[in-house]
Amino acid sequence: MIQVLAFYLFAIVTIVSGILCVTARNPVHSVLWLILAFFNAAGLMVLVGAEFIAMLLVIVYVGAVAVLFLFVVMMLDIDFAELRSGFARYLPFGIALVVLLAGEIVFAEGAWSAGGLQLSRTAPTPDPASVPNIQALGILIYTRYLYIFEGAGLVLLVALIGAIVLTHRKRGDVRTQNIMQQNMRRPEDATRNTQPKVGQGVEL
Q1: 146, 137 contact by CB (below 8 A)
Q2: Under a CB-based contact definition with an 8 Å cutoff, are residues 40 and 13 in contact?
Q3: Domain extents for the chain?
Q4: pLDDT: which is higher, 125 or 68
Q5: Is 22 helix (H, G, I), strand (E, B) or coil?
Q6: Looking at the domain that runs over 1-78, which CATH code has it been given?
C-alpha cells in the first residue's frame, strides 16, 4: 500500500514539475522545477528497483546538468521574452510532433507485445535474483551492448569536438588577444621618451 502511495506521489510531483518547468516565466524557476522533477524521477526508479538509474539522475543530471543550466541562465544576459515570442507560432508543430512520437511509442509497444522480434544474444541475461542491479547492468553494457556503448561515446566525442571548434572559430568583427605578439613586444615599442619644453605638454 505504501509503495502505491509513494508511486502516485512521485509521479504526480514529476508531472507537475515538468509542466511548471516549461510554463514558468522565470528561467531560474524553470531550472529549479527541473531539479525537482529529476529528484522525483529518481524516486520512481528506486521503486522499480533501478537504483543505478536513480543514482545517475541525482548525481549526473541534478549535480551537473541542472546546476550547469542554472549557472548559464544566471550568468548570461539572454532576452527570454524574445525567445518566447515564437511559442504560439510553433505550438501546432510541437503538438503534431508529440502526437507522432506518441504514436510511434504505441506502435513499437504493440509490435513488441505481438512477438517475432528476437535480439541477438552474445551474452546470457543475468539472473536478477542472484546478481545486484548495478552488476547486472554492467554485465549487459560491457558484453551484449559493448559496441553500442562505444558508439555512444564516439558520438559524444564528436559533439564535444564540434562545440570546441564552433566556440574557438575566428570572427572578423571581434578583436582577439594575440599572446605571442604581446610576449614578443619590446619595451621601446611600447613607450616613448620625450623631453617637452616647459608649458608645451606632451604631443600624442
Answers
A1: no
A2: yes
A3: 1-78, 83-118, 126-170
A4: 68
A5: helix
A6: 1.20.120.1200
Task: Determine the Cα–Cα distance for residues 21 and 26; give it in Å rounded to an integer.
Answer: 9
Eight-state DSSP code of residue 112:
H
Specify the amino acid at residue 156.
L
pLDDT tens column, 123-156: 455 555 677 777 888 888 888 888 888 888 899 8
Mean pLDDT of 152-180: 79
Residue 17's region, left for phi above 0, alpha for psi from -120 to 50, else beta, is alpha
Helices (H), 48-86: 51-56, 67-75, 80-83
d(CA 86, CA 90): 6
Q: ∠ CA 145-149-155 to the nearest 5 degrees?
A: 145
- What's the pTM value of the predicted model, to 2 decimals? 0.52
